[in-house]
Automatic annotation (TrEMBL):
The keyword Chaperone does not apply. Residues 225-359 form the NACHT domain. Keywords: ATP-binding, Cytoplasm, Leucine-rich repeat, Nucleotide-binding, Repeat. One of its GO terms (cellular component) is cytoplasm. It comes from Salarias fasciatus. This is NACHT domain-containing protein.
Amino acid sequence: MLFVFRSNSGSSCVSMKSDRSMAHPTTFKSGPGPDDEGVSQQSSQVLPGGSAHQHQTHLDSIFKMLEDNMVTFMKEELKKMKKLLIPDYPARSESEREDEDEEQRSSRESLVRITLDFLRRMKQEELAQRLWSRAFAGVCQKKLKCSLEKRFQCVFEGVAKQGESTLLNQIYTELHITEGGAAEVNQEHEVRQIEAASRTADRAGTSIRPGDIFEASPGRSQPIRTVLTKGVAGIGKTVLTQKFTLDWAEDKDNQDIHLTFPFTFRELNVLKEKKFSLVGLVHHFFTDTKQEGMYSFEDLQVVFILDGLDECRLPLDFQNTEFLTEVTESTSVDVLLTNLIRGKLLPSARLWITTRPAAANQIPADCVDRVTEVRGFTDPQKEEYFRRRFRGQQASKIISHIKTSRSLHIMCHIPVFCWITATVLEEVLRSREGGELPKTLTQMYIHHLVVQAKVKTVKYGGGAATDPHWSPESREMIESLEKLAFEELQKGNLIFYEPDLTECGIDLTAASVYSGMFTQIFREESGLYQDKVFCFIHLSLQEFLAALHVHQTFIKSGINLLEEKQTTIQQSPQQPQLHHLHQRAVDKALKSPNGHLDLFLRFLLGLSLETNQSLLRGLLTQTGSSSQSNQETVQYIKEKLSESLSAERSINLFHCLNELNDGSLVEEIQQSLRSGSLSTDELSPAQWSALVFILLSSEEDLKEFDLKKYSASEEALLKLLPVVKASNKALLSSCGLSERSCGALSSVLSSQSSSLTHLDLSHNCPGDSGLELLSAAVEDPHCSLKTFRLSSCGLSERSCGALSSVLSSQSSSLTHLDLSNNDLQDSGVKRLSLGLESPHCKLEALSLSGCLVSEEGCASLVSAVRAESSHLRELDLSYNHPGDSGVKELSAAVEDPHCSLETLRLSSCGLSERSCGALSSVLSSQSSSLTHLDLSNNDLHDSGVKRLSLGLESPHCKLEALSLSGCLVSEEGCASLVSAVRAESSRLRELDLSYNHPGDSGVELLSAAVEDPHCSLETQGGPWWTAVAQTWSEEVFLSTSTG
């Protein structure tokens, strides 16, 4: 290192580079006298009583000596600084640093600062920055790390007890982050996205550690500059960036990064009308950088974190914004950010942007190098969270309760909802005032509201926990928050500023006591914020309070806030007609194209129950519950379920029925399922919807869905599409499906929330047109299909063109394709081979069994099989007509070092002993990877088996399984196999000789070979062969236990 400076506080600050020669201090002249004491005495004698001339002479002498010392010091230090500016100048050892004099260190720091000032006056910015980087970057880094460590080491979960906070490292639970997807908009309500994600959380891809967010994936050559991380509200995106920053500040991770600057768009919104340079913006938020003189980022690896793009109120215009390349040039904050993200400004920096899915498309795709998604907690991570919060039996009780409520279990996918749930259940279990534990979302949020009111009473009001917690002041505050929630929800706003709160009559000082319901985002450092920013801790809480506002307004005044023209509904004070409000809410929710009112509707209906209203006694001064009114609402919902609704809308209506404690439809279907008497031919639309709801709400993981369990029909498939969408594997073979089904399945495959990785459509009639629809969907970036079975689907060569496009698509994930028993012919295989040859093709297994492939078709496959980029491990050409010539060409390809084929099936291909010579060459080839070979039902005869045995005996042979069933093998052929089976190098574990003519002597020869210690044929604890006398011949069936 170059310098070790001592700051004013006395703490040691270490620089980043060093100069070996600086270990030797400069020697200064000490004065004209023989020693320091003489000079001191002389000074004391001359100064007080001497003449002015003597005084001046003495001063001249001192300053001459001072000038000599300073010039000597500066010359020496400037020489060292000059060396320092030479690239790759060697660092000095740790022992040399320890020997450095403290006073010398302080003097050097001052001189470097003076030198920097002069270099900048001389317009030598590049040299100044290089000198600063090597002299002070370490100092700046250390101060920045100290500041960020203090800022992020503690977090507050909702309403923290006075003076208490929680260490982030203590409560942090690893989040499930996956790579993939596109930086595009998802307009679905986030609860729908959460429900979809909860079904696949444990099955999704490999999790990325926060510290590896900028690490390139294997095989990626280009470095990652910009990462866009998506995730629904409350999923943990902000905590994730805080953990990344804290680990860096604590020297635990990413130490190749010199400086990390975390920003939030909430903070940046406040600066909308101001102008900054990039350096100025950093100085504004991180004052230590300005104090240390940082005016450039040259030679530094810098990370900018931009958290909360969905909350951005800056006009980010990537099409028309002026270009900016200088970090010291001032402009508006939106222009600054646009150029930083676009890479025009400081292209060497790394950026991490977080956002909710609905705002992801604000950043152009070409500006993003990696898209990741925070998928929240998996089921084991949910349990881990609660076991961190609670101990022993209490933790087990809470986890058990959450599992009994599907809606709560799904919402606990979100970390912030886990906190709400933990807070509520802890209080309810302690007080037992609420009777049963909350089971619905409405009950959970009602209890949450009550808990916050209690905290306010005890923590801020000085009252006891047993005191009434709804005072006139607290009621007024909650009602103001309800109004704010509703009005801002209508505008689509999730963050608010002081004027928004003032408009709703909220006093900011009083509001701070409800920090559990909305969060003030501000820091104490001076000059950082001009305004405070507010938000509810989660969108769902804002929706709950909005529903409470609509409910209370209707009960108090009869005004329906959901009507475009608000009118007062005349009603009896004893019996408010809530079903009028509810019916209007149901209609409005069903018309919402993206389900944006789904959760609001659930809350509004749940608030009508008398049991829920009793929990809010004190806040609700009037009740509006009526069993008759609620029954009318239930009946209205059931009528709607009988209409042609989308699956998502129907499912939400069943959630609404749950909130109203009506499970009659669901129970009816469940009873039929349990008794095995379910007849789908007689189901009404509402009952079909109930079946979908039951299957999706089942605690069992939907890994496999078999349509034939319910009804092998196209109508049943169309009704149960949401279940297909949520499943990993869909078994739809032999269900009478047509092109119509393909259109519906295409929408499932290309959906962002689809879980489907395995689709079996064998023995249906999709036709080429239907296959083309499906192929387009499989190419979609959202499609994760890996296995596609299309056996016996009446496809022609036309389908091969569409499938070839899929195989060559970079976005396709397809690895297994079954096209067996379709009349593709050679022309179709030729078109398919074009896709197989693509460097983007990921296919590992291909079945073309029974596809009318001849020698010509085999020839077209050769180049695909031997392509350097090929991933093909398994090829099935059974029941075709390649002929011996086709097999010879194919064998040559299999011997190619680039060929990765491990399994080759050539059953019933009309092969003769000629093919055995070519295949024997493959088996004895050192470059061949073949481990499984099926030659069954070919007339190879003993002569063919003899030629094949030569390859089997080769020390290079890797074959593990060989099928020679029905190949006209006699005793002579068996004898030739014996030496191969007992060869020391043999790896053969499975041998199928069924439907041949070995005779008794052949059986004896092979039985003896099996006893040989070198033989590796698997017996699995029993005889490796079974003899079966055939009535029509003297055939003997011989096989391994697995053959």
